[in-house]
Structures are given as structure tokens and as C-alpha cells.
């Protein structure tokens, strides 16, 4: 599994021959990538805020996955033609990948001018094996937490049952967790590798990611924190095996 961060909350995940793009928003200072260069099979949207769906119209040939409300919105407003609406706890089989939608604690207003809601915001757990109660030591699993605060579901469900090997958490504060809460989240999900995201895009979420590194160390957890540069790829398969 390869993980590429394009800044903010935008990630590209490769599982076998399947390419997934999460929260396409390329108007951020961390990336030089032209979205036209990418050709994902699937686009996953955590919620309907503009800084997570703004470039959805660049990927109309992909299959979109989100809550039914967000799928309806991007179909109407962005010309998306192919999508699956799902909800918390569901798992969607995306060719070589299994995508489980999990809760995120945030808001999810849509830019309709009428205060419409996109349903509950989400995170995604992406794995190369189907989640079951039987632990699979050979699976590779990535948890994209979405825009969220710290929540006990990370400790009680996502960590022990979905068993992510790697986790990306927002550290920007103001709209999401800041560095110390994000560090607790890393400790709770007990992943081997952690990545900060959703920071330095706008003035309210400017952060020094080294504060996050120090906060993870302060929890006593032995997760390796990787502060990626924009457009940098982390090969999870290579690190695990």
C-alpha cells in the first residue's frame, strides 16, 4: 500500500491495482501537483466542506463514495456521474481495497445557501483485506481520520477492531484537533505510523508539526511519526514487510 499526501486532507492511496483519492483539494500551499495528472478509480469524500470536495469535478470518471447526502450534492453541483452513498459502519469493496466508513466529530454543512447538511462527517479505514473479528497479521490498513475532534470511538472501536497500521490525523486546531489531541488519537488507535494533516493551509490552522511529534512522544506510544512534504509518498508495504 502506497500513501501520498497532497497537502491539507488530500491523500492518494494505492492498494494493489486500485487507486483511491481522498478529499480532493489541490488549492493548498503544500502541493505542486496538477490534479489532471491523477486518474483515481475511486474518490472518497469525508464531508461536504469546500476544502475537501473543491476539485471533485476534475475526477468525474471516478466512482465516488460518501454519505448519500454528499453524493447527491456533488452529483448536482460537480457533475459527478457515478457514486455510492453509504453510512457509518458500512464497508464498500473497491476492487482490491475494502473501505470502511467510520464516524468523525465535526460539522458537515453544504454550500447551498440553505444550511443543508451532508449527514454525519466521516473518516475512512482502507485495507487490503475484508475487516473481520479475526485479526489478520498480514493485512495493510490505513486510517484517514477526516476532520474530527478526539473521540473515544478511536480507542474503543477503530483501534482494537479495525487495527490500522498507519493513521493520518488533523493537527490544525481551531476546526479540528490540535497537536496534543491528535497525539492522544494516535495513542488510542495504536498504529505503527502516524502522519499529520490539515494544517498550514489557512492562517487559523497554522501549526509546527514538530509539536505533534513531541506530543506523540509524550504519550509514551512508540508510533513513528512521519511529517511528509507535500506530494511525498510513504510506502507502507515496504515499511511493514
From TrEMBL:
Hydrolase is among the record's keywords: yes
Keywords, ordered alphabetically: Hydrolase
Signal peptide residue numbers: none
InterPro entries: Metallo-B-lactamas, RibonucZ/Hydroxyglut_hydro, UPF0173, UPF0173_UPF0282_UlaG_hydrolase
Domain Metallo-beta-lactamase per the UniProt entry, residue ranges: 7-198
Superkingdom assignment: Archaea
GO molecular function, one term: hydrolase activity
Similarity comment: Belongs to the UPF0173 family.
Classification via NCBIfam families: PRK00685.1
Protein name: UPF0173 metal-dependent hydrolase SAMN05444342_0597
Organism whose genome encodes this protein: Haladaptatus paucihalophilus DX253
